[in-house]
Specification:
- It comes from Cognatishimia coralii.
- It is built from 16 helices and twelve strands.
- With 422 residues, it is of the alpha/beta class.
- The chain folds into two domains: 129 residues, Orthogonal Bundle (N-utilizing Substance Protein B Homolog, Chain A); 203 residues, Vaccinia Virus protein VP39 (Rossmann fold, 3-Layer(aba) Sandwich).
- Strands 5, 6, 7, 8, 9, 10, 11 and 12 form an eight-stranded mixed β-sheet that branches.
- The structure holds S-adenosylmethionine.
- The site of S-adenosylmethionine has 19 residues, from helix 12 and strand 6.
């Protein structure tokens, strides 16, 4: 792992301030320009340091706690956290300690605390790397752990936490030829057809990137379109499409896709992705709830808590507290009602969320069926290659969890269901 420089470390401290102090997601802070002034290598390092520190935060705080009589101001605490993380994974003590002393000493408000930073990080340097791996796997914060234990069990939540701590490999979806992609990248072909790379490096340097023969997409995220099974020439409506992984899958099947999303900037990414992969879709920046018409096939990948993606986004449980989730649950119900209204008789709707919360999955479907007559869950739509029967949920959907495929690197948490209008 390359040694981080001062600008990257300073930016990583800023990112941690944003997540732990301001409750912002890393993606929001970075999208807001937090790393704009850095060169690409420093940008990647700052992001990696912030992400991995947040992933191991409980362990890091335990180690720091022993050397602190009271907590310093948040920026100093975050400098200590990132310094401690680097030391705990074997960073060279001299360079790490000096960098964070320098960062704090340059701060007008906290410059006087450079002695504390020096003393604490030297103590962490002495044995942090030995202690770090012996501490318990970091747990989710209570606001999320509680509902998950209730929905699953303490043992399953512990396994999910293991998967979060292990992080995520890079999964690719082939535009057409999975076997060729697997051979070209020397990755592993997963049972559901995605290709998994353990050591990815820079994505744009992977074979086939420029030709657009694949795109990055978690293996679980690639399943909803397989459940929808779009046919060549079929017209498909995709609601909430950006950044477009599923749009590309639908377009690659030969179906005609109208992809709708409210976010102009995220839709620009869909357009870029389609250009690189030489695929076509009708892109609409607009509200899913304003869509009209009658469709045989609809995919609704609704906005959700994203609690299924914590392996990739360990900032999420620290930035959020669940207080805005009720608005999402209501929006999902509204979107489901609208989507079934847009379905032709005999048509199918695949609903999915990258969430672990049953409120955004199983419960939404049960309530939808209570609100509308003439709908049924099509469990047969889940008869696709690589699906483990144990993943099927009672009401006929698929419940995917990060601890599945644990020996192969896990998967994102997802809920997927196919609804038919009779
Ligand atoms: C889970 S993401 C979609 C991921 C995407 N389907 C993919 O596979 O790449 C949810 C998306 O819903 C969009 N969104 C939120 N509210 C919306 C609305 N009222 N109408 C349309 N899109 C909306 C967000 O901009 C976001 O891009």
């Amino acid at each position: 792992m390359p040694q981080a420089g001062l600008p990257a470390r300073r930016a990583a401290v800023f990112l941690l301030d944003q997540v732990l102090g301001e409750g912002r997601l890393l993606s929001e802070a970075i999208g807001g320009g937090a790393l704009e002034r850095l060169d690409p290598a420093d940008r990647a390092t700052a992001q990696r340091l912030a992400t991995e520190t947040l992933r191991g935060l409980e362990r890091i705080d335990r180690i720091l706690q022993k050397h602190l009589q009271k907590y310093p101001p948040i920026t100093v605490r975050n400098a200590l956290r990132i310094g401690a993380y680097e030391l705990c994974i074997g960073g060279a003590a001299h360079g790490v300690v000096n960098s964070f002393v320098e960062i704090v000493s340059r701060s007008k408000r906290h410059g006087s605390m450079k002695g504390l930073v020096n003393a604490v990080l030297r103590k962490v340097a002495a044995n942090g790397a030995e202690v770090y791996p012996t501490l318990r796997t970091p747990r989710l914060p209570k606001w999320l752990r509680g509902p998950l234990v209730e929905a699953y069990s303490p043992e399953i939540v512990a396994a999910i936490e293991e998967a979060h701590f292990a992080g995520a490999p890079l999964d690719l979806t082939a535009k057409s030829d999975q076997g060729a992609l697997q051979r070209a990248t020397e990755g592993a072909l997963l049972p559901t057809g995605s290709v998994r790379l353990k050591e990815a490096g820079q994505v744009s340097m992977l074979p086939g990137f420029k030709k657009g023969t694949w795109w990055v997409q978690d293996a679980a995220a690639a399943i909803p379109v397989q459940v929808l099974a779009p046919k060549e020439g079929e017209a498909v409506l995709e609601l909430c499409a950006a950044p477009g992984g599923k749009t590309m899958q639908i377009a690659a099947s030969g179906a005609k896709v109208r992809a709708v999303d409210t976010s102009e900037s995220r839709m620009a990414r869909v357009a870029e992705n389609l250009k690189r992969t030489k695929l076509e879709a009708d892109l609409v920046v607009g509200d899913a709830l304003a869509e009209e018409g009658q469709w045989d096939a609809i995919l609704l990948d609704a906005p959700c808590s994203a609690t299924g993606t914590i392996r990739r986004h360990p900032d999420l449980p620290h930035a959020k507290d669940g207080s805005d989730f009720f608005d999402l649950f209501n929006l999902q119900a509204q979107m489901l009602d609208h989507a079934v209204h847009l379905l032709k008789p005999g048509g199918r709707l695949v609903y999915c969320t990258c969430s672990l919360l049953p409120d955004e999955g199983e419960a939404q479907v049960e309530e939808l069926l209570e609100r509308h007559e003439g709908l049924r869950v099509d469990a047969e739509a889940l008869d696709i290659e690589g699906i483990d029967p144990a993943w099927r949920s009672e009401e006929g959907g698929l419940r995917l969890r990060p601890d599945y495929w644990s020996d192969q690197g896990g998967m994102d948490g997802f809920y997927i269901v196919c609804i038919r209008k009779d």
